[in-house]
Specification:
- About 30% of the residues lie in helices and about 25% in strands.
- It has helices at about 5-10, 15-30, 55, 80-95, 115-125, and strands spanning about 30-35, 60-65, 70-75, 80, 100-110, 110-115, 130, 140.
- A hairpin with a 5-residue loop joins strand 7 and strand 8 (about 140).
- It contains five helices and eight strands; from the N terminus they run H-H-E-H-E-E-E-H-E-E-H-E-E.
- With about 150 residues, the protein is an alpha+beta fold.
- It has one domain (about 5-140): Trna Endonuclease, Chain: A, domain 1 (3-Layer(aba) Sandwich).
- The protein starts with 6 loop residues before the first helix and ends in a 10-residue tail after the last strand.
């Protein structure tokens, strides 16, 4: 699945490749993972887009190790919607704390990139590669190599 597919095209496939990659990685690390956010593939919500932004953008997972608990939003490509970028400060305020950080994990077939909200914002702002999905929604392709965070 390419990061340029429409919402309908992305959800016509019954698995979320990025989430599957992420879950296999967590399993290999012995981490406990609990779904928190919506599963648009297996349990779609009618009128999803009528829900408030902070509800629609709940973190996907809670990840637990013996040392800490982390909230994670998983992305299956390096594309970030303009609308989500505009929500990043609100998402950080709602879901990031001193004891439990919010991470974006860009789960690609060959590599996982763990990034804090501040790094995602900077990568978006520095991106020169702007795209538009068939439904008119804008996104930017992120280059995450210059913005390093570790879980």
């Amino acid at each position: 699945m390419k990061g340029t597919n429409t919402y309908r095209e992305r959800n016509s496939i019954k698995t979320n490749q990025g989430e599957e990659i992420f879950l296999r990685w967590c399993e290999g690390k012995g981490l406990k993972v609990t779904r928190l956010g919506f599963d648009e593939k297996q349990a779609p919500v009618d009128r999803f887009y009528d829900l408030p932004d902070l509800v629609r953008n709940l973190p996907d997972f809670i990840v637990q190790s013996e040392e800490k608990v982390t909230l994670v939003n998983v992305k299956g490509s390096l594309n970030l919607k303009e609308k989500e970028y505009l929500l990043l400060d609100k998402l950080a305020e709602a879901y990031d704390s001193e004891k439990c950080h919010l991470y974006y994990v860009f789960a690609l077939p060959r590599e996982l990139f763990w990034r804090r909200v501040s790094s995602v914002k900077r990568a978006y702002e520095d991106s020169k590669e702007i795209g538009q999905w068939p439904d008119g929604k804008l996104y930017r392709k992120l280059d995450l190599c210059g913005f390093l965070d570790h879980a």
